[in-house]
Amino acid sequence: MERVAVRDEGTDDHVEVVDEVAREYAGRRGALIPLLQKVQSRIGYLSIDAMERIAERAGVPAAQVFGVATFYSQFRLAPVGRHIVKVCHGTACHVQGALAITEAITNELGVEGEGTTADGEFTIESVACLGCCSLAPVIMVDEDTFGRLTPDEARKIVKNYGD
Q1: Where are the alpha helices (DSSP H) in 59-96?
Q2: Which of 13, 98, 104, 133 is least crowded, fewest Cβ atoms below 10 Å from its Cβ?
Q3: What is the pLDDT along the chain (163 residues), one digit of tens a residue?
Q4: How far apart are alpha carbons 162 and 147 in whole angstroms?
Q5: Is residue 2 part of a domain?
Q6: Domain extent at residue 130
Q7: Domain tally, the chain
Q8: Residue 48: which residues within 8 A CB-CB, separation 6 or more?
Q9: Whether residue 140 sits in one domain with residue 104
Q10: By C-alpha distance, which of 21, 80, 86, 71 is closest to 47?
Q11: Could you tell me if 87 and 53 are in contact, meaning their C-beta atoms sit under 8 angstroms apart?
């Protein structure tokens, strides 16, 4: 999935969140990553406006903030769904049918590849490894892990998280 940052209309609330969080880290060296993490946890992702304000408040170039946010996969540059579905595509999961699991989930949710459903309910992400190789194939929905899945089981799991 291409990582393109979003500039939101009316992000005064983003600026307020950044200002509030930045006060907690004022004067602390090396606080850029924790600052980005906390802002993302409050807003849900890092918009261009939020990252520009972080640069101002942290006293670092905007390029540095963008560089960190785009380097680490933990940071999101666009809004995500209410539920995050991570499909493991590590070696064990791949061998055990991760592609079929991904296809079943994307078909169930009406999303092509990685992305967010039109209703903002789900975001599907492919991850390199969830660390549950003995349970392959594995998905995580939010903080819940499910293993030894068939495509039909994966479809039922995501369906149960809807609404």
Answers
A1: 62-71, 91-95
A2: 13
A3: 455 565 564 467 888 899 999 999 887 888 999 999 999 999 989 999 999 999 999 999 999 999 999 999 889 998 889 999 999 999 999 999 999 999 999 999 999 878 899 999 999 999 999 999 999 999 999 999 999 999 999 999 999 997 6
A4: 20
A5: no
A6: 83-161
A7: 2
A8: 5, 6, 7, 8
A9: yes
A10: 80
A11: no
